[in-house]
Amino acid sequence: MAPPTGKRVKGVQIFRPFVYGTTARPFDEKTNPKPAGVPDDHTHSWTVFIKGIDNVDITYWLRRVQFKLHESIPNHVRMVEGIKGQPFQIHETGWGEFEITMKLYYVPESSEKPQTLYHHLRLHPFGRTEEEKEAMRLNGGEVISWVYEEQIFNEPYEPFYDILISGALPPSAPTLKDGGGGGGGSGAATPTSANTPGASSNKGGNKKGHERSHSRASVSTNKDGKNNEPKEEPFVMQRSEGGVLERSAIIPLVNRPGHPFSRETEQLEIQKLKEAMVKVDEMRKHMLEEMEKKQKRLEALRAENAKAA
Ligand code: SLL
């Protein structure tokens, strides 16, 4: 951790979405043949990763990741340095599931302490129903356990703020200093449980759990701390990455195979919640009616009783 430089940008919270998790595949002569030298008792090949959504670069804020694997694995503590635009990842083979510890080291300009994430390596799908198990399978037999997460940088130091803002934009975009607003706009990200059978173990103090839904402060805040109102200008697509580069501070617009986290899934989740609310309201009304009926019936019976007495 480098000593802080500059002042903190007050009242600003910047969030960067990312995905972490494991993808495993059973060895199979046709679909996943066992490479030479892999021990007989190994049943799966697997990958543990941390990456940007839709593989958007995150190395401008995340410098390196230390993966701590099971002690039975040779050289089980491994440091992975960030390579621009590529996931932080480790490929391995093995026979058993275990908890992986990932320690995130941020770029020195951030002056942020490293933070730790925990993730259970899944080799076998699990769930109460076949459907739930099937939801963990992708691409004909891969077992996925992925978690959507957001890294929150609270009142970042000025130099880091500049890095965060310019790093989120594609090289083709005008920079904020040029007056372009590529990184602005407000993002309300409600992550989804779709394809995330593994629960998030969100132990870092600076991160937001994906179970929380919230509107978020706009990141288009001036250095003087004044908050620009989020502008609802339609943004112009300059390139064809499905909107993710231009909007890399938030989540992509639509789902694509292998990338389940998007505004589209978010909207589906919101829709489901709305429908559930309507249903709950109907149930509430129905119960009230039933109660009133019973109340009347009770009164009638009481009156009858009184007469008979
Ligand atoms: C289990 N508690 O019993 C777990 C331990 C260990 C997995 C799982 C070894 C790989 C290698 C491997 O897969 N260990 O030998 O390189 O299920």
UniProtKB/TrEMBL annotation:
Keyword line: Coiled coil, Nucleus, Transcription, Transcription regulation
Mainly resides where? nucleus
Sequence ranges of Low complexity compositional bias: 188-204
- Please give the GO cellular component terms listed in this UniProt entry: chromatin; nucleus
Residue ranges with Gly residues bias: 178-187
Q: Which GO terms describe its biological process?
A: regulation of DNA-templated transcription
Composition bias of kind Basic residues appears in 205-215
Where in the numbering of this chain does the YEATS domain appear? 8-167
Q: Which InterPro entries match?
A: YEAST_sf, YEATS, YEATS_dom
Region annotation Disordered: where it falls in the sequence: 175-241
UniProt-annotated location(s): Nucleus
An example of a Pfam family matching this protein is YEATS
**Which residue windows does the record flag with biased composition (Basic and acidic residues)?**
223-234
The coiled-coil regions, if any, are 263-308
Q: What is this protein called?
A: Protein AF-9 homolog
Organism expressing this protein natively: Sordaria macrospora (strain ATCC MYA-333 / DSM 997 / K(L3346) / K-hell)
